[in-house]
Amino acid sequence: MKCSEFLDNYTDFRDGALAPREGDALRAHMTGCVPCRRYDRVVTRGVGLLRAVPGTGPDPDFRARLRHSIYALEEERRRRRLLGSAARAVPLLGALGVAGALLATLTLRESVPVVELPPIVAERPSDASGPAGPALLPGAPAPVEARAWPAVPAGPGTPGTLASAVRLPAAAAPAAARRFPAPEFWRGANELLYRNSSLYLRYREPGLVRTTGLR
Amino acid sequence: MLPEAAARRTEGPESVPARRTPAALAEMTDSEVVQCFLDGEPRGFDELVRRYDARLVNFVHRTVGDRERAQDLVQETFIRVYRHIERFDQARKFSTWIYTIAGNLAKNELRNRSRNPIILFQTIKKNWDADHRPLEWEDDGPKPDDLYRRRHLKEMVERAVAELPEHHRMVFVLREVDGHSYEDIARITETNLGTVKSRLNRARNNFARIVGPMIG
User: Fold this and answer.
1) Could you tell me the end-to-end alpha-carbon distance of chain A, in angstroms, rounded to an integer?
2) Same domain, yes or no, for B1 and B108?
3) For B162-173, how does the pLDDT look when each residue is reduced to its tens digit (9 = 90+)?
4) A contact test, residue of B46, B49, B98, B157 with most A CBs within 10 A
5) Contact B74 A65 (CB under 8 A)
6) Residue B215 belongs to domain with CATH number
7) Do A62 and B83 touch (CB under 8 A)?
């Protein structure tokens, strides 16, 4: 056996990983080879000395420092868990808030008292306005003679009252109201406005005028 | 160590932490201690620290050559163990797992140091010398006197280990000082068996070359 073979197999030999026959061959080589024998002695003694060197080990405060670090780690985990819980709770709280708001709205709506109010009569325009106003459309439904309308609180200038819409002078108001609309009322801009209003689209009766009778 | 940590791991109505005395824990295997800790025994982690702190500090110290830094790295090792112990595959050996963590931290430390150009030059030079110089462990030169040798022999042996190339040093310490098997070393260093044997063989050759003049 050559020395190079000995060195190649030395690790397995030293660690007992070599087959018995190969181990015997290495031992036989060492017996007759001074450098290889010395090599084995140096490694064995050197490792022996190394193992005999007392380990330095950790400092006395090593475990206290470790404990402190782990406490800090636990604190961090706890904080993250809390943050995580809060983050998970936000959508839930939002949903609960929306549901609560809906519930409150429904409850409030149901709690509003229903008040029976006297009906309001809608009258067909008088014949006086007929010739002057636009003619009823052919095929249009017959005008409603009397229809119930929700009452509007009365008052001077209240929106929805005829007086407030026309803004007649106070002295002339009763007489003008009786003749309302005037024959020329449905001409020009008023007619154009009316034909484009929702009232016209609904009833197609340009001559029908609501009077509340509350003036 | 930490009641909160143990309590965190024992959620559930039927899981009551089983208190163990330190003496009882000391008689358990590593796997049993790990299981105890996972079951809610807070002293389990203390026991693992007690078993491994000195060994790991010595291993990392010999690998990185800086005792203070070695202690920091071992602290980090234990913190990682604590943080990830639930992921530990108990079919494996705990010692291999914790040595793998410590070894990786030590390798990272050496890699970071190698980014320093001055150290890089020294490292390259040292590794080149170790890997390419013909094997010259026979020393015919004069030997120091016995008194000096006795006084400094152990120190010199440690220095010889420090002079080994990094990737040889770790394998050498794991085998010769900590007594790990080839298979464990392969797992710890994340290499194959052939690489372990090769590195160990070269590490022994280098070691013999360095300490030969003093011992032979």
Assistant:
1) 133
2) yes
3) 888 888 999 999
4) B157
5) no
6) 1.10.10.10
7) no
Could you report the predicted ipTM of this complex, rounded to two decimals?
0.70
Residues B136, B36, single domain; the answer is: no
Question: Alpha-carbon distance A152 to A120, whole Å?
Answer: 9
Residues B120 and B195 in one domain: yes
**What is the extent of the structural domain holding B176?**
116-216
To the nearest 10°, the Cα dihedral for B150, B151, B155, B159?
-70
For residues B101 and B48, the answer to whether their CB atoms sit within 8 Å is: no
Mean pLDDT for B179-208 is 90
pLDDT of the residue at A164: 41
**CA-wise closest residue to B171 among B153, B194, B138, B141:** B194
Structure pTM? Answer: 0.59
Q: Token pair of B156, please? A: 């010199």
How many domains are there within chain B? 2
On whether any CB of chain A is under 8 Å from the CB of B162, the answer is no
Using CA coordinates, name the residue in chain A closest to B60: A57
For residue range B148-157, list pLDDT tens digits in order: 665 677 778 8
Which two tokens mark B127? 């590794």
Query: Would you call A73 and B138 a contact, using CB atoms and an 8 Å cutoff?
Result: no
Asked if the model's pLDDT at residue A146 lies above 50, the reply is no
Residues B91 and B173 both lie in one domain: no
**Distances A33 to A38, A188, B56 between C-alpha atoms, Å:** 9, 133, 39
Q: Which of B100, B115, B130 is the last residue of a domain?
A: B115
User: CA–CA separation, A44 vs A47, rounded Å?
Assistant: 5
Boundary of a domain, candidates B80, B98, B115: B115
| Chain A residue nearest residue B201, CA to CA | A11
